[in-house]
Amino acid sequence: MSVSRMPALFLSHGAPPLVDDTRWVSELRAWSGDLPRPSAILIVSAHWESAPLTIGSTDPTVPLTYDFGGFPERYYRARYDAPGAVDLAAQVAALMPDGQAVHHDTDRRLDHGAYVPLTVMYPEAQIPVLQVSLPTLDPEKLLDLGRRLRPLRDQGVLIIGSGFTTHGLPFLRDPRPDAPAPTWSKEYDSWAAERFAAGDVESLVRFRTEAPGMPYAHPTVEHWSPLFVALGASDDPEQQGQQIIDGFWMGLSKRSLQLS
């Protein structure tokens, strides 16, 4: 069976209630419907920082990681029993530099930054999925990690960096999904759209000092960091990516990017 070369994605993944947002669900489903079918999915989520690089469980019976609190009980009953990507885990380890330690966590599978968007994009849960940790928040090192993972795209592996274009949760004052976006979120989103369109990786790397809306848009930076894995996995990080999703949810920017 022929395998299609896959793009790399940066997506804003949402909290568990994403699955109740009709518009966002339709946007994510349309996106996955336009992609070739992956042979496997490799995902890096903002919600798992662990150094050195840590490969999650390939056992589909390991429970999901419900790494959130204060939500209705039904969100803690979510399931996503996708096959474990055993071969992919071995390939990821082999792509790391000689002498660099790679850990395996057999007790940790998918957190909500991984499974929530996948339940919408690939609800049948038939594609093998592997999550690996963010081993650092240094953009340059994450770009290098993405470059090392790039050859997997030729084998039909969909590489996803799952974060959020803005994530200033401490500064939100209106919890409604359709709440107006704060000025800092709109300014950061506009800047990100311009930098994505220009392929301006240098500015994206320097977001802490160059982006308007900081530090409110990212008081901690883990939700922006998966972008750099996706950029590194692309053929040319300075190419213009396709901005597939835009708009706001709870005032946070949903802007999401597809890279060839």
TrEMBL record:
InterPro entries: Extradiol_dOase_DODA (IPR014436), Xdiol_dOase_suB (IPR004183). It is an enzyme of class 1 (oxidoreductase). Transmembrane segments: none annotated. Residues 27-237 form the Extradiol ring-cleavage dioxygenase class III enzyme subunit B domain. Its cofactor is Zn(2+). The lineage of its organism: Bacteria, Bacillati, Actinomycetota, Actinomycetes, Mycobacteriales. Gene3D superfamilies: LigB-like. Its EC number is 1.13.-.-. Keywords: Dioxygenase, Metal-binding, Oxidoreductase, Zinc. Belongs to the DODA-type extradiol aromatic ring-opening dioxygenase family. It holds the Pfam family LigB. This is Class III extradiol ring-cleavage dioxygenase. One of its GO terms (molecular function) is dioxygenase activity.
